[in-house]
Amino acid sequence: MFDPKHFESGGSDVNPWVPMTPGVQIIRKGTVFIGGRTVPHLTVTTITDVTKKINGVQALLVLDQDIDGGQVSEQAVDYLAEDVGGHVWYLGSYTEAYEGGQFLNAQDAWLAGVNGAIAGLWFPGDPQPGSQPFSQVQVPGVERSAALVVQVGQRKCVPFDCFKDVVVLQEAGSENKYWAPGVGQILTEPLSGAAQEIEQLINVKELSPSALAELSAEALKLDKHAVQTVPSVFAASNPAVRVR
Fold first, then answer.
1. What pLDDT does 206 receive?
2. Could you tell me the pTM of the whole model?
């Protein structure tokens, strides 16, 4: 159960499957179906050093950048926080879509505690197959999404490396995501018959201070722009800040 009293400042950083260290960047490559055709797809995930207080909890901003056909098609910030038991919670999200490098629209905007939205469980601290499905997103009248632990202790190889102790989560009944200790998500596979994206880990690196500063600035920019594009969600929220 989500309880603000179960969090420590900055998170406990004990969940091995979800990187929460600022400066870590994870790159996955694959394909996505757009307009009935397969397009090369790249996802760059950066753990920034930006935080935002949401629903009484200090959340860390994780920046996701989607590159389709060589162009940035989406940028998103996910607001995550880890409690003392190693459970990683999903406290909000904001996504911007682009076309030809220009802002197109805002999507998937919510914050826990605003308009009835409830914090969801991003990743359990002790994943066990056979456990009950858990809610990742609960936004009344907008979005609901659940996940299920289907396998643990797996060995899985992707272009970057082979990993053991991999956990497999099934999300929204449509895709499996594979999580490896120390690096996070290494593979996304659609379930049979589902036309969705496929991604495999191709690189993990630690950013230089200047590179981290640049991407953290992008996360700050997105959080600030959200106040203008979705004021019903973000106007009254605490501003995001860099932790230096």
1. 97
2. 0.92
